[in-house]
Specification:
With 171 residues, the protein is mainly α. The chain contains eight helices and no strands. The longest helix has 34 residues, at 68-101. The protein is globular.
Length: 171
């Protein structure tokens, strides 16, 4: 942690090698989180690349070295949200085309696909909170920092989302 703080301090002063060291420390987590959200390897790589560029350009604005990881994840979260909005637009267009053509899918879904579909039927904020906690291992406080929410709000949203998922699975 001390090494991370030192790298952040140097990177804020324009040290490219220090920023590269920070990038190496967080790349795997950034990529896995983006992949989890976007479900596409290339889009995840693009989101991480865009995040790193934005972070490099804005690191001088980071006020607290200890918050680097939360700060860069917040940037990634916003990049992924933008990409997910694009997905929704494409999905709506595709559904419309399918409906216009009169096609219907009658394929059976595996249990994992059903759960995945239920998960993606949650609101974006609910999916993000659950994903950051369960899949990325962040605490409510860290998620709050990333998403700009109070940690109690994070816990409340997570509880409601999990309850909603359980109800959907049982119906």
């Amino acid at each position: 942690m001390k090494n991370e703080k030192q790298l952040v301090a140097k990177a804020r002063l324009g040290d490219v090698n220090a920023f590269a060291g920070l990038y190496e420390m967080v790349y795997a987590e950034l990529y896995h989180y983006a992949l989890y959200l976007l479900k596409d390897r290339e889009d995840a790589k693009d989101a991480v690349s865009d995040t790193v560029i934005a972070a490099f350009e804005g690191i001088h604005n980071l006020r607290d070295e200890e918050l680097f990881k939360s700060w860069i994840f917040k940037i990634l979260y916003n990049k992924c949200r933008k990409k997910m909005r694009e997905y929704v637009e494409k999905e709506e267009m595709t559904r419309q085309k399918i409906n216009e053509a009169g096609y219907r899918q009658g394929m059976e879904q595996s249990e994992a696909a059903v759960i995945r579909n239920l998960f993606y039927s949650l609101q974006e904020t609910e999916r993000t909170v659950i994903g950051l906690h369960l899949f990325a291992g962040y605490t409510s406080r860290e998620i709050g920092r990333i998403m700009g929410m109070n940690e109690n709000t994070v816990r409340s949203r997570e509880r409601r989302a999990l309850k909603k998922l359980a109800e959907m699975m049982n119906s």
